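Feature request, filed as a ticket because there's no other form

It would be nice if the structure record came with a short human-readable summary line next to the C-alpha cells. Right now we just get the raw output. Example of a typical job, pasted below so the devs can see what we mean:
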Amino acid sequence: MSHEFEFIHSLQQNLNYIRADIDLGIGDDCAVWKVGDQKVLLASDLLVEGVHFNLNDISYEQVGRKALAVNLSDIAAMAGTPCTALVSLAIPTETSKKQVEELMRGMLSLGHHYGTDIVGGDTTSHNGPLMVNVAMTGLISREPVKRSGAKQGDIIFVTGPLGGSITQHHWSFTPRIHEAAELSELACLNSMIDLSDGLASDIRHIVHASNVGCVLDAQKIPISDSVEQSLSFEQRLFHALSDGEDFELLMTVSEDEAKKLRSQTRIKLFEVGVMQGDPNSILMRYSDDTLKEVSDSGWKHKFQ
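Raw output as currently delivered:
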C-alpha cells in the first residue's frame, strides 16, 4: 500500500520541466510560474464526497466554501495574494439545480471576501459522488515562502489551536491570507506550510525539504477546545498532532525575527518548538525533559 506523499516524491524524481519559466514545481503548497518580472502562484485541490465531506453533515454552500478555502490556504502558505479560480464539478445525476447554486454561492461569497474571481472551469454529471476541483492563481511581490528554507535554530510558530477539526472547523475555517501578508511584511519567514494533514505530517515536509531536524514542545502545542476535554493530555496531544484540516499556518523564523513577531504583531501566535537536531529527525520534548520521536500520524490518502 502506497500513500500520496510517496507518490508525489516519485513524481518529483521523474519529472523534467521543459519550460524555463517554471520557477518551482511539484513539492510545495503552490507551484510558481515566472511571467516576466511577476511570479504567479498555482494551486489546485480536489474534494470528494465521502472523503473530504459528508452531505449528511454539511450543506452544499459549506462544501463550496471549503473547496475555495483550501486553495486560499495554499496561497496563504506562500504569503501570496489570491486572484482567480477555475472550478470543475462532477455532479451526481440526482443533484438539483438549487443545490448546485448553493454550492457556487459558498464559493462566490468567500471569493468576494478575498478578492478572488471565478473565471471558468467545467461541469459534468455522473452516477457517483460529488467532486469539486478548484485551481487557483495568486500573485506575490517578493520571493515566495517555501517549505525548504528552515534553518538550524529557527523558532517554530503556529497561528492557532490544533485538533478536533472534524467537529466543524474543517468547513468553517478562515484562510490565513491576511495573517500571512502581515507576518511576511513584519519579519523574514524562512519557511511556511498550511496545516492540512496534521502537525505530525506537515512538519515533516519542512524538515525533509530543508534537511534539518526539529524538537516540538508538548506543553506549548495549542490544543483546540474541540478536542474532547475528558481525554488524557497524551490523547488530546495526539489529536492536535494528527487530526488534520486545521488550516493554520506553521512557520519558522530565526531567533532575531522571532523577537519581532513576539513584540510587534497583534496576531495570536503560538511558539511550539525549534528547528534543531539531526537532519530529518522530529522529536517531542515533554515536561520531564525527555525526548521522544514523533510518529507520522497525520492524514494520508492511500492507494495500491
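Something like this underneath would help us a lot:
The first strand starts at residue 2 and ends at 3.
The chain has a mean pLDDT of 93.
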